[in-house]
Design brief:
Oligomer: heterodimer
Strand content of chain B: 5-15%
Helix content of chain A: 55-70%
Number of strands of chain A: 0
Shape of chain B: flat
Order of helices and strands of chain A: HHHHHHHHH
Number of strands of chain B: 13
Radius of gyration of chain A: 18 Å
Number of helices of chain B: 23
Helix content of chain B: 40-55%
Largest sheet of chain A: none
Structural class of chain A: mainly alpha
Distance between the termini of chain B: 44 Å
Structural class of chain B: alpha+beta
Chain lengths: 196, 582
């Protein structure tokens, strides 16, 4: 069954068909949301609310890029959460738990513990660099450089002009680069001499 | 930066240049300036390195499935209610512990209760908390005063003095007996108490975190033990789990856990969409992540290795994109790890779990094994009907490399005569582990069952007449077309994929960082193109529907697909047809 057929069924209220679409995109949606909002639970809330909104608004979807349409809803839910957090800051208990969430699930048995640790540290530092960006830049750099969206898709998702997307992406990249530069002492040893 | 003589070259221009979307004039300008201005060269290289770092970040795994309950009542609710905190309580909380279908019919009073606590505004939540606290106090007080009354009655009835003293001790610790009796109290009472206690810990946000954290564990119990998780069980976990759930290593074990999980009914079935687009819910995989969260990473590696071997062994026969070489051919780059992390728990064919389970081989699999062995003895692919010189075959075979018993295939770069002409290429693939340099099948005709089967998936006849490829002496280019069989049986391009080229040959972590993926352009026909590719050996990776796939050899996806790019030569890799994305 094609995506289009699933969408049509879901538009007629078929939750199972919509769930098939969720299975396709939930990983992507959560990954983007997690890097946009502050904590995992808020990200999960954003994704769940986004899917609910999407299901409710599916009747208004008139074709086109469903992924971009869906991600636009999820992204807007992330922004809603960010705005709410700004109004009423709260620290999630999840943030008190140690451990990077992005540890890969498959490791190379030949990778030494030092290499593994170094890679984890580097990943954590980059995630921090992403979090240091303004939300609108954060979203764009995540969509582009982590998930490989095209400029046009990002423009569709963020409802911004292509020029704005390019501009924000360049600023975001420069921001992460500068962040890494300013924290070069935190770069794992194997990478430190390379800098950025 | 101030030292640059080219302040008008902005980061935006450089960023676009890195992505290959700058205008021709800008590209020429930048390339000229890079050669003469160290500052600009540094900015380009640093941005490129930053992008490479970002590319290496893995896709994060959802903590649970976000599927909606298949419930007509829910559909009605969600269509009628506003922004749904209620929906969240039913979805984000209740369904976290079990697959969607299992939740039908059991949302009931528990969802209503949690909805009351988690829904609404802060004031309502606080009012509910206060009410619950008062109820608990009254209950406790009742017991307390009940004891007092009983005690006094005993004294009046002339019970022994020692008993009176003992009861008097109890009176001083009035509430304690009631708490002790929790062990024998109905679980749902504890659930109420737990639910009542949680909001008092913090604001609603923190409250939600507490619930979520514990439910993550309860979901593991549900996934592994099978039975539907009841609200009572949830409450039990809330009370017990927090001290026993170290999170840091949780995600490390996901693959192994998912692989070890039996394919139970808990795994929501998934239909195929556009060939590969649908994948089995990774709810179980992510949920079960927590189960073995304390497992050491070293153990995880071993388990993973086992999974990979099992997958390779058990999935012979029909081409299975989940097959991973038993021995990794190269140390996976972070990107490779990212790809694997995406692919393994819930790849296009579902999780690797069934393959990893110690099950007896299916007779059909055995037959397929035999057939596959016959094919791999000397698997030669003839891409087009035109003949190829024997020495070209030998050259290709010589370029194949064996690492620890596994074989990958390198397509030697034979530049096409003209960038504006159609190109055809013959690709040779062999399994050296099986046949060494046996070229007995090199001239196999299409009548042979093996090559004929293999030939069905590759067609190196991309018409590149419409592609304009500008070359220079320092870089090469790569283009081709990617098609995947869709449910209607036709090979079609993927929907909105992204494609990248990753340099390989890394032997250590430092070299891995040099594996700077280059994002290519791919159009609606699946025709992709990489320009300004540095010479080297590459693999192609495709991201579609949020999943990253490393393209294996189209006709034998147990073999890696490597492409050698030389400077100054465009390389037409042809039309790559896949039954399923590897």
């Amino acid at each position: 069954m094609t995506e289009k057929e699933l969408i049509e069924l879901a538009q007629n209220g078929d939750v199972e068909s919509f769930n098939q679409l969720i299975y396709i995109y939930e990983g992507l949606a959560y990954s983007v949301a997690r890097r946009t909002v502050r904590d995992p639970e808020s990200a999960a809330d954003a994704v769940q609310n986004g899917f609910i909104k999407a299901f409710r608004g599916l009747g208004g979807f008139r074709g086109g890029n469903f992924r971009a349409w869906l991600m636009r809803i999820v992204t807007n839910c992330c922004y809603d959460i960010l705005r709410a957090e700004k109004r009423r800051p709260a620290e999630s208990l999840d943030n008190l738990l140690a451990g990077p969430e992005h540890i890969p699930h498959l490791t190379d048995p030949r990778e030494s513990p030092e290499q593994f640790t170094g890679r984890m540290e580097l990943g954590s530092l980059i995630e921090d660099g992403i979090r240091s960006l303004p939300p609108e830049q954060r979203t764009i750099i995540v969509l582009r450089d982590i998930h490989g969206y095209t400029y046009q898709e990002i423009a569709d998702i963020t409802e911004e002009a292509m020029g704005t997307v390019k501009s924000r992406l360049s600023r975001a990249r420069a921001g992460v680069r500068d962040y890494l530069q300013h924290h070069s002492e935190l770069l794992p040893t194997p990478y430190r001499h390379r800098g950025v | 930066m101030s030292s640059s003589n080219y302040p008008h070259i902005t980061d935006e221009m450089l960023s676009a240049y890195i992505d290959g979307v700058s205008t021709e004039d800008e590209r020429n300008l930048i390339e000229t300036v890079i050669a003469s201005d160290d500052e600009v060269a540094w900015r380009v290289s640093s941005l490129r390195q930053t992008v490479a770092y970002l590319n290496d970040l893995p896709e994060l795994v959802p903590p649970r499935s976000f599927a909606l309950p298949v419930d007509t009542q829910f559909a009605t609710e969600i269509a009628g209610l506003g922004e749904s905190r209620l929906g969240e309580s039913r979805l984000g909380r209740s369904t976290q512990a079990e697959p969607v279908r299992d939740t039908v019919g059991q949302a009931g009073w528990w969802s209503g209760l949690t909805g009351l606590f988690q829904g609404g505004g802060l004031q309502l939540s606080n009012a509910m908390i206060a009410s619950a606290a008062i109820v608990l106090l009254l209950i406790g007080g009742g017991i307390f005063f009940g004891d007092l009354v009983r005690q006094n009655r005993s004294m009046l009835e002339g019970v022994a003095q020692t008993d009176s003293l003992s009861d008097g001790t109890d009176v001083q610790t009035g509430a304690q007996p009631a708490l002790d009796s929790d062990e024998n109290r109905p679980i749902d009472t504890m659930a109420d108490e737990s639910a009542a206690d949680e909001p008092a810990a913090d604001e609603p946000v923190a409250n939600g975190s507490v619930v979520s954290e514990t439910e993550g564990v309860t979901s593991s119990a549900s996934a592994s033990s099978g039975p539907i998780l009841t609200p009572s069980a949830t409450a039990m976990s809330i009370a017990v789990v927090p001290t026993a759930t170290p999170k840091p290593s949780a995600t490390l074990t996901t693959v192994s856990v998912a692989a070890a999980m039996p394919d139970t009914e808990a795994a929501a079935p998934v239909a195929a969409v556009s060939g590969e687009m649908l994948e089995e819910s990774d709810a179980d995989a992510s949920d079960s992540t927590e189960t073995l969260s304390s497992m050491a990473s070293e153990e995880t590696m071993v388990v993973n290795s086992t999974v990979m071997n099992s997958a390779a062994v058990n999935s012979t026969g029909a081409i299975n994109p989940e097959v991973t070489p038993a021995t990794p051919l190269i140390a996976p780059t972070p990107l490779a790890a990212k790809q694997s992390s995406v692919r393994s728990p819930a790849g296009p064919q579902g999780p690797a779990a069934p393959q990893a389970a110690p099950i007896a081989p299916d007779p059909a699999d055995v037959q397929n094994d035999e057939a596959d062995s016959a094919l791999s003895a000397a698997s030669i692919v003839q891409a087009e009907t035109e003949a190829i010189e024997q020495e070209q075959i030998e050259a290709a075979i010589e370029s194949a490399t064996e690492i620890e018993g596994s074989t990958f295939v390198t397509i030697p770069n034979a530049p096409i005569p003209s960038a504006s002409s159609s190109s055809s290429r013959r690709v040779v693939i062999t399994d050296m582990a099986e046949s060494g340099l046996d070229l007995s099948g090199a001239s196999a005709s299409s009548d042979d069952a093996g090559p004929q089967l293999l030939n069905s998936n590759i067609d190196l006849t991309v018409d590149v007449s419409t592609l304009k490829v500008e070359m220079n002496d320092e870089t090469g280019a790569l283009f081709g077309q990617l098609l995947v069989r869709s449910p209607d049986g036709e090979f079609r391009p993927l929907m909105r994929p992204s494609i990248r080229l990753t340099k390989i040959g890394a032997d250590d972590a430092d070299d891995m960082l040099e594996a700077n993926p280059q994002i290519g352009e791919i159009d609606e026909q699946g025709v992709f193109m990489f320009l300004s590719v540095e010479p080297g050996t590459y693999t192609i990776q495709v991201e579609s529907a949020g999943r990253l796939f490393t393209l294996m050899f189209p006709n034998d996806i147990s073999k890696e697909f490597r492409i050698v790019i030389d400077a100054g030569t465009p390389f037409n890799v042809g039309t790559l047809r896949y039954e399923k994305l590897p």
